[in-house]
Amino acid sequence: MEPDTIRILIPALIRHCNHPDPCVRFWSVFALGQIATPEDDHIKEVLLAKTADDQIAAGYWSVGREAQCALIGFNDSNYLDSLRAEWDALGREGSALDREWAFFYGSQTPA
Questions:
Q1: Residue 102: burial class (beta carbons within 10 Å; 0-12, 13-18, 19+)
Q2: Cα dihedral: 72, 70, 88, 61 (round 10)
Q3: Helix, strand or coil for residue 8?
Q4: Is this model's pTM higher than 0.70 or not?
Q5: Chain segment 4-13, per-residue pLDDT in tens
Q6: What spatial distance separates the first Cα and last Cα of the chain, rounded to whole Å?
């Protein structure tokens, strides 16, 4: 798909970030993170709000954890440094689900 074609999905994805089903919210957050550019402040605001969503998407982790990683694309080095520190701590002390999340994203994010 062409970038402009994908970007027409943004309003629907934003609406679905408030869907009652955590799986719908999870994948909407994921998609927004893939589509967003550093200039998309309105998407950043939505993703920041979703970091508090602790509902688990079946087979994955919480919507909030996914939102944390969706924010990586906004190129804030301080944010990424704090996220790396959280991944390190969770790798030692987190729940199994948090460790899985930290390993998945921590191993894929360039230094």
A1: buried
A2: 180
A3: coil
A4: yes
A5: 778 899 999 9
A6: 29
